[in-house]
Amino acid sequence: MRRRLATLFVGLLLFVLLMPPAHAVNEVAIHEIQFTTSPTGESAYAGQVITTGGLVTALYPDGFTLQEPLSAPWTGIWVADAARHPVPGSFVVLSARVAELDGMTALTEVSDLVVIQSGGLLPQPVLLRTSDLAPGSPNAEAYEGVLVSTGRVTIAGVAEGAARWDVVDSSGVPTTVGNRAGYGYQPQLGTELVAVHGVLCYDGGRYTIEPRGDSDIRPVRPRPDIVGEVRLERRAQWGGVIVQLNGLPIAVTEPDGSYAISNVPPGTYPLRAYAPGYLVAERQGVQILPGNTITLPPVTLVGGDVNNDGVINVQDLIVISSNFGLCPPPDPYVDITADGCVNLNDLVLVTQNFGRYGPTPW
Q1: Within 10 A of 246 (CB to CB), how many other CB atoms are there?
Q2: Same domain flag for 201 and 324
Q3: Is the link from the previous residue into 266 a cis peptide, with omega within 30 of 0?
Q4: Of 219, 248, 278, which closes a domain?
């Protein structure tokens, strides 16, 4: 990284040395243009034509931003030029006039823009509290034109048309997010976000974070759910089936057989469905991805395993025969079909599935 920065600055130096004399005056670093102690925030170079250089950190329809290749106060600046579209990550040198546009220091009347190098690494956004960027904050002026980021925030207000919306963190003081880039994200009041990245601008009497696109708005992704349906042979209702995730009982089916397992951490898991009198059904390799809900195909449990030993055999026939005709039987689990009696329905289950064993595929 140090070698790359050295190459960039050597390139800038060579460019300045080789420029015609008419442009080789007033070479100024971005932080010199931006730094000010004036209560109005006005640059000491306002009105002057200067030559400067930096990394292109953001590109918007009405201009772009330059920043020195580090994350620090006073190191970024807005370039009000919609005609040129330098690629973010490019190190450019240009001549321009320093101006104050509605309270924001900017470069206008751009000329002699030259790309020295492309594909540079962008500086990391500076992490700031929303209170640092709120109206009246003494800290915000220093980050004009700089890539910044919030921490975890909640959307606290949305203007009509979602052109502007407010976010607030634990400081309790909101700041504004703009939509200069024309991204597609639709803010919703109360939504939690992991972070909002963007360039800090001053517009309409307030500081706004201007995301470069949808990827700069980082929503809190809910952990996914697993949903599905388990059916039971020869039963009118399918409730009470236990669904296991990774060997642990997690959910019980509703009377219609539906189940839901919520807030599953991303990963790959085995699932099992179990009910007394039925063979276990098993599904391996259920992959859970962040933010997704997984809908599994319905599964029907095979009935007849009265003694729950994992196989339907003569032992199950003996149990059914010894309890046949009892309404209800002394052991309710012998009544596989749960119709109140050990009868032909239970006997049919054992005989039609005789010889099958579990777990059965799901």
Answers
A1: 13
A2: no
A3: no
A4: 219
pTM: 0.61
Q: What is the pLDDT of residue 94?
A: 97
Same domain, 277 and 193: no
* Segments in the chain below pLDDT 70: 1-25, 222-223, 291
Query: Do 234 and 350 lie in a common domain?
Result: yes
User: CA 111, CA 350: separation in Å to the nearest integer?
Assistant: 88
Give 309's contacts (C-beta < 8 A, 6+ positions apart). Answer: 315
Phi, psi of 302 (to 5 degrees): -85, 125
Orientation of helix 314-323 relative to helix 344-352, angle to 10°:
170
**247 & 137 share domain:** no
Name the domain count of the chain.
Answer: 3
d(CA 291, CA 303): 36
Residue 131 CA, chain-centre distance (Å), reads 23
- How far apart CA 312 and CA 354 sit, in angstroms, is 5
* Domain boundaries, position 144: 126-219
pLDDT digits (tens, 9 = 90+) for 101-155: 988 999 999 999 999 999 989 999 999 999 999 888 988 999 999 999 999 999 9
Q: What is the CATH number of the domain that holds 52?
A: 2.40.50.140
Domain boundary among 174, 199, 219: 219
Q: What are the strands, taking DSSP E only, across 118-238?
A: 126-127, 147-149, 153-158, 164-168, 175-178, 192-203, 206-210, 217-219, 226-232
Spell out the residues 6+ positions from residue 40 whose beta carbon is closer than 8 angstroms to its own.
none
